[in-house]
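WARN no homologs supplied; continuing
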Amino acid sequence: MAIKSVALIGASGTLGPSILTALNNSPFTPFVLNRESSKSTYSDNTKVLTIPDDLNVEQVRKVFSENAIDALIIAMAGSHVEPAKKLIEAAFNSSVQRIIPADFGSCDSADDATVALLPLMEGKQRVRQTLIDLSSRDRPNTAKKLTWTALVPGHFFDYGLGTSLLKFNVAERKAYLLDGGDIKFSASNLDFIARATVAILQKPDETENKLLYVHSHHVTQNEVLSALEKVTGDKFERIEESSKHELSVARPKMLEGDGDATEEIVAVWGVVASDWKGKEGFANELLGLEEEDLEEVVRRVVGGK
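OK structure emitted
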Protein backbone atom coordinates (compact mmCIF):
# COMPACT_ATOMS: atom_id res chain seq x y z
CA MET A 1 0.00 0.00 0.00
CA ALA A 2 1.42 3.38 -1.02
CA ILE A 3 0.01 6.38 0.82
CA LYS A 4 0.93 9.81 -0.52
CA SER A 5 -1.91 12.29 -0.01
CA VAL A 6 -3.60 12.60 3.40
CA ALA A 7 -6.76 14.53 4.24
CA LEU A 8 -7.34 15.77 7.78
CA ILE A 9 -10.65 16.99 9.17
CA GLY A 10 -10.67 18.69 12.58
CA ALA A 11 -7.36 20.45 11.97
CA SER A 12 -8.29 23.41 14.19
CA GLY A 13 -9.42 21.39 17.21
CA THR A 14 -7.50 20.24 20.28
CA LEU A 15 -5.45 17.52 18.56
CA GLY A 16 -5.77 18.54 14.91
CA PRO A 17 -3.08 21.27 14.85
CA SER A 18 -0.48 18.83 16.17
CA ILE A 19 -1.43 16.25 13.54
CA LEU A 20 -1.23 18.88 10.81
CA THR A 21 2.25 19.91 11.98
CA ALA A 22 3.39 16.27 11.99
CA LEU A 23 1.99 15.76 8.49
CA ASN A 24 3.78 18.90 7.29
CA ASN A 25 7.02 17.42 8.59
CA SER A 26 6.38 14.04 6.98
CA PRO A 27 6.82 12.65 3.45
CA PHE A 28 3.04 12.90 2.93
CA THR A 29 1.14 15.64 1.13
CA PRO A 30 -1.45 16.93 3.61
CA PHE A 31 -4.81 18.47 2.81
CA VAL A 32 -7.15 20.10 5.33
CA LEU A 33 -10.88 19.52 4.93
CA ASN A 34 -12.86 22.65 5.81
CA ARG A 35 -16.63 22.96 5.80
CA GLU A 36 -18.02 25.82 3.76
CA SER A 37 -19.10 27.82 6.83
CA SER A 38 -15.86 27.24 8.75
CA LYS A 39 -13.99 30.33 9.93
CA SER A 40 -10.78 28.39 10.57
CA THR A 41 -7.66 29.77 8.92
CA TYR A 42 -4.30 28.15 8.21
CA SER A 43 -0.87 29.14 6.94
CA ASP A 44 -0.63 30.18 3.30
CA ASN A 45 1.07 26.94 2.27
CA THR A 46 -1.71 24.73 3.66
CA LYS A 47 -3.76 22.97 1.01
CA VAL A 48 -7.41 23.46 2.01
CA LEU A 49 -10.26 21.51 0.43
CA THR A 50 -13.75 22.89 0.96
CA ILE A 51 -16.57 20.43 1.60
CA PRO A 52 -20.30 21.10 2.16
CA ASP A 53 -21.56 21.73 5.67
CA ASP A 54 -23.92 18.75 5.48
CA LEU A 55 -21.07 16.48 4.31
CA ASN A 56 -23.05 15.39 1.26
CA VAL A 57 -21.54 11.99 0.51
CA GLU A 58 -21.33 12.39 -3.26
CA GLN A 59 -19.79 15.85 -3.07
CA VAL A 60 -17.21 14.75 -0.49
CA ARG A 61 -16.45 11.66 -2.58
CA LYS A 62 -15.78 13.92 -5.53
CA VAL A 63 -13.34 16.00 -3.47
CA PHE A 64 -11.50 12.85 -2.39
CA SER A 65 -11.33 11.51 -5.95
CA GLU A 66 -10.32 14.75 -7.65
CA ASN A 67 -7.45 15.21 -5.21
CA ALA A 68 -6.36 11.55 -5.17
CA ILE A 69 -6.67 11.30 -1.39
CA ASP A 70 -5.10 8.08 -0.08
CA ALA A 71 -5.79 8.43 3.64
CA LEU A 72 -8.33 10.22 5.82
CA ILE A 73 -7.71 11.25 9.42
CA ILE A 74 -10.84 12.18 11.37
CA ALA A 75 -9.83 14.41 14.28
CA MET A 76 -13.29 15.79 15.03
CA ALA A 77 -14.88 15.14 18.41
CA GLY A 78 -15.74 11.48 18.79
CA SER A 79 -19.33 12.45 19.58
CA HIS A 80 -19.88 13.40 15.91
CA VAL A 81 -20.89 9.90 14.90
CA GLU A 82 -23.15 10.59 11.92
CA PRO A 83 -20.77 13.12 10.31
CA ALA A 84 -17.96 10.59 10.69
CA LYS A 85 -20.05 7.89 9.03
CA LYS A 86 -20.78 10.21 6.08
CA LEU A 87 -17.08 10.87 5.62
CA ILE A 88 -16.35 7.16 5.78
CA GLU A 89 -19.02 6.39 3.19
CA ALA A 90 -17.58 9.04 0.88
CA ALA A 91 -14.10 7.58 1.37
CA PHE A 92 -15.36 4.08 0.66
CA ASN A 93 -16.90 5.26 -2.61
CA SER A 94 -13.63 6.90 -3.66
CA SER A 95 -10.14 5.39 -3.69
CA VAL A 96 -9.13 6.28 -0.11
CA GLN A 97 -7.05 3.39 1.21
CA ARG A 98 -6.82 4.08 4.95
CA ILE A 99 -9.04 5.79 7.52
CA ILE A 100 -8.00 6.74 11.04
CA PRO A 101 -11.25 7.49 12.93
CA ALA A 102 -11.76 9.80 15.90
CA ASP A 103 -11.01 7.11 18.48
CA PHE A 104 -8.31 9.33 19.99
CA GLY A 105 -9.08 9.81 23.64
CA SER A 106 -8.85 8.94 27.29
CA CYS A 107 -10.89 5.75 27.35
CA ASP A 108 -11.04 2.44 25.50
CA SER A 109 -14.11 2.19 23.28
CA ALA A 110 -13.44 -1.54 22.81
CA ASP A 111 -13.89 -2.23 26.54
CA ASP A 112 -17.38 -3.39 27.52
CA ALA A 113 -17.34 -1.70 30.95
CA THR A 114 -16.26 1.58 29.37
CA VAL A 115 -18.99 1.45 26.73
CA ALA A 116 -21.59 0.68 29.40
CA LEU A 117 -20.45 3.66 31.46
CA LEU A 118 -20.00 6.22 28.68
CA PRO A 119 -22.46 6.57 25.78
CA LEU A 120 -19.74 8.55 23.96
CA MET A 121 -17.71 5.35 23.70
CA GLU A 122 -20.65 3.47 22.21
CA GLY A 123 -20.68 6.02 19.38
CA LYS A 124 -16.97 5.50 18.74
CA GLN A 125 -17.58 1.76 18.74
CA ARG A 126 -20.31 2.14 16.10
CA VAL A 127 -17.98 4.14 13.87
CA ARG A 128 -15.28 1.49 14.19
CA GLN A 129 -17.80 -1.27 13.44
CA THR A 130 -18.79 0.60 10.27
CA LEU A 131 -15.14 0.53 9.22
CA ILE A 132 -14.86 -3.17 10.02
CA ASP A 133 -17.93 -3.91 7.92
CA LEU A 134 -16.78 -1.81 4.96
CA SER A 135 -13.25 -3.25 5.04
CA SER A 136 -14.67 -6.64 4.02
CA ARG A 137 -16.75 -5.33 1.12
CA ASP A 138 -15.90 -4.78 -2.54
CA ARG A 139 -15.71 -1.16 -3.57
CA PRO A 140 -17.26 0.60 -6.58
CA ASN A 141 -14.20 2.48 -7.84
CA THR A 142 -11.19 0.34 -6.97
CA ALA A 143 -10.22 -3.27 -6.49
CA LYS A 144 -8.41 -2.37 -3.28
CA LYS A 145 -10.15 -2.88 0.04
CA LEU A 146 -10.72 0.02 2.42
CA THR A 147 -8.56 -0.33 5.54
CA TRP A 148 -8.57 1.39 8.92
CA THR A 149 -6.51 1.91 12.06
CA ALA A 150 -7.89 3.24 15.35
CA LEU A 151 -5.53 4.85 17.86
CA VAL A 152 -6.27 5.20 21.59
CA PRO A 153 -3.64 7.31 23.42
CA GLY A 154 -5.20 7.73 26.87
CA HIS A 155 -5.56 11.14 28.50
CA PHE A 156 -4.12 14.06 26.51
CA PHE A 157 -1.37 14.67 29.06
CA ASP A 158 0.09 18.11 28.27
CA TYR A 159 -3.34 19.45 27.39
CA GLY A 160 -4.80 17.87 30.53
CA LEU A 161 -2.36 19.59 32.86
CA GLY A 162 -4.04 22.87 31.96
CA THR A 163 -7.56 21.53 32.52
CA SER A 164 -9.24 19.25 35.06
CA LEU A 165 -8.70 16.21 32.82
CA LEU A 166 -5.92 14.77 34.99
CA LYS A 167 -7.67 15.78 38.24
CA PHE A 168 -5.19 18.56 39.05
CA ASN A 169 -5.89 22.26 39.45
CA VAL A 170 -2.43 23.69 38.87
CA ALA A 171 -3.48 27.33 39.29
CA GLU A 172 -4.94 26.65 42.74
CA ARG A 173 -2.30 24.04 43.63
CA LYS A 174 -4.83 21.29 44.28
CA ALA A 175 -4.55 17.58 43.54
CA TYR A 176 -7.65 15.38 43.47
CA LEU A 177 -6.24 11.91 44.11
CA LEU A 178 -8.38 8.98 43.09
CA ASP A 179 -8.32 5.90 45.33
CA GLY A 180 -5.02 6.94 46.90
CA GLY A 181 -3.36 8.23 43.73
CA ASP A 182 -1.28 5.12 43.01
CA ILE A 183 -3.20 3.74 40.02
CA LYS A 184 -1.05 3.44 36.89
CA PHE A 185 -2.62 5.00 33.81
CA SER A 186 -1.62 5.77 30.24
CA ALA A 187 -1.48 9.30 28.86
CA SER A 188 0.00 10.93 25.78
CA ASN A 189 1.18 14.39 24.76
CA LEU A 190 -0.45 15.95 21.71
CA ASP A 191 2.66 15.95 19.52
CA PHE A 192 3.33 12.34 20.53
CA ILE A 193 -0.17 11.35 19.38
CA ALA A 194 0.45 13.20 16.13
CA ARG A 195 3.72 11.34 15.56
CA ALA A 196 1.97 8.05 16.28
CA THR A 197 -0.68 8.95 13.69
CA VAL A 198 1.92 9.66 11.03
CA ALA A 199 3.80 6.47 11.96
CA ILE A 200 0.64 4.46 11.31
CA LEU A 201 0.52 5.81 7.75
CA GLN A 202 4.22 5.08 7.32
CA LYS A 203 3.60 1.44 8.29
CA PRO A 204 0.31 0.77 6.50
CA ASP A 205 0.72 -3.00 6.20
CA GLU A 206 1.72 -3.55 9.83
CA THR A 207 -1.13 -1.38 11.13
CA GLU A 208 -3.89 -2.48 8.76
CA ASN A 209 -7.32 -3.02 10.36
CA LYS A 210 -6.04 -2.78 13.91
CA LEU A 211 -6.99 -1.07 17.16
CA LEU A 212 -3.76 0.29 18.62
CA TYR A 213 -2.84 1.80 21.99
CA VAL A 214 0.07 4.13 22.74
CA HIS A 215 1.28 6.33 25.56
CA SER A 216 3.88 8.98 26.31
CA HIS A 217 3.61 8.33 30.02
CA HIS A 218 2.74 5.33 32.20
CA VAL A 219 2.32 7.05 35.54
CA THR A 220 0.33 7.46 38.72
CA GLN A 221 -1.29 10.65 39.94
CA ASN A 222 1.17 10.68 42.81
CA GLU A 223 4.08 10.59 40.37
CA VAL A 224 2.57 13.48 38.42
CA LEU A 225 2.01 15.36 41.69
CA SER A 226 5.63 14.87 42.69
CA ALA A 227 6.76 16.31 39.34
CA LEU A 228 4.37 19.24 39.68
CA GLU A 229 5.60 20.11 43.16
CA LYS A 230 9.23 19.86 42.09
CA VAL A 231 8.74 22.03 39.01
CA THR A 232 6.58 24.70 40.68
CA GLY A 233 8.37 24.66 44.03
CA ASP A 234 4.99 24.59 45.78
CA LYS A 235 3.16 22.03 47.87
CA PHE A 236 -0.25 21.07 46.51
CA GLU A 237 -3.31 20.50 48.65
CA ARG A 238 -4.13 16.78 48.52
CA ILE A 239 -7.83 16.01 48.20
CA GLU A 240 -8.68 12.31 48.46
CA GLU A 241 -11.52 11.06 46.25
CA SER A 242 -13.21 7.72 45.68
CA SER A 243 -13.55 6.92 41.98
CA LYS A 244 -16.66 4.85 42.71
CA HIS A 245 -18.31 7.78 44.49
CA GLU A 246 -17.32 10.33 41.85
CA LEU A 247 -18.75 8.16 39.07
CA SER A 248 -21.98 7.48 40.98
CA VAL A 249 -22.53 11.21 41.45
CA ALA A 250 -21.60 12.29 37.93
CA ARG A 251 -23.27 9.60 35.84
CA PRO A 252 -26.94 10.55 36.51
CA LYS A 253 -26.07 14.14 35.64
CA MET A 254 -24.34 13.00 32.46
CA LEU A 255 -27.41 11.03 31.39
CA GLU A 256 -29.44 14.23 31.78
CA GLY A 257 -27.13 16.00 29.36
CA ASP A 258 -24.70 17.69 31.75
CA GLY A 259 -21.49 18.18 29.75
CA ASP A 260 -19.38 18.90 32.83
CA ALA A 261 -20.48 15.59 34.32
CA THR A 262 -19.41 13.77 31.15
CA GLU A 263 -15.99 15.41 31.39
CA GLU A 264 -15.72 14.35 35.03
CA ILE A 265 -16.48 10.72 34.16
CA VAL A 266 -13.92 10.76 31.35
CA ALA A 267 -11.37 12.31 33.74
CA VAL A 268 -11.94 9.67 36.42
CA TRP A 269 -12.24 6.66 34.12
CA GLY A 270 -9.19 7.78 32.15
CA VAL A 271 -7.17 7.30 35.32
CA VAL A 272 -8.71 4.19 36.88
CA ALA A 273 -9.33 2.15 33.70
CA SER A 274 -6.80 3.24 31.08
CA ASP A 275 -3.59 1.28 31.62
CA TRP A 276 -2.29 0.16 28.22
CA LYS A 277 0.99 -1.39 29.39
CA GLY A 278 1.00 -5.01 28.26
CA LYS A 279 -2.41 -4.64 26.61
CA GLU A 280 -3.00 -6.44 23.31
CA GLY A 281 -2.51 -3.82 20.65
CA PHE A 282 -0.03 -1.73 22.65
CA ALA A 283 1.99 -0.27 19.80
CA ASN A 284 4.77 2.00 21.10
CA GLU A 285 7.42 -0.39 19.80
CA LEU A 286 5.64 -1.08 16.51
CA LEU A 287 5.40 2.64 15.79
CA GLY A 288 8.93 3.44 16.93
CA LEU A 289 7.83 5.50 19.93
CA GLU A 290 9.41 5.81 23.36
CA GLU A 291 7.92 7.01 26.63
CA GLU A 292 8.74 10.64 27.40
CA ASP A 293 10.36 12.14 30.48
CA LEU A 294 7.63 13.13 32.95
CA GLU A 295 9.45 15.96 34.71
CA GLU A 296 10.69 17.43 31.42
CA VAL A 297 7.16 17.54 30.02
CA VAL A 298 5.70 19.01 33.22
CA ARG A 299 8.43 21.68 33.20
CA ARG A 300 7.68 22.52 29.56
CA VAL A 301 3.93 22.77 30.11
CA VAL A 302 3.66 24.22 33.61
CA GLY A 303 7.01 25.83 34.29
CA GLY A 304 6.76 28.12 37.28
CA LYS A 305 3.01 28.72 36.90
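The chain is about 40% helix and 20% strand.
OK
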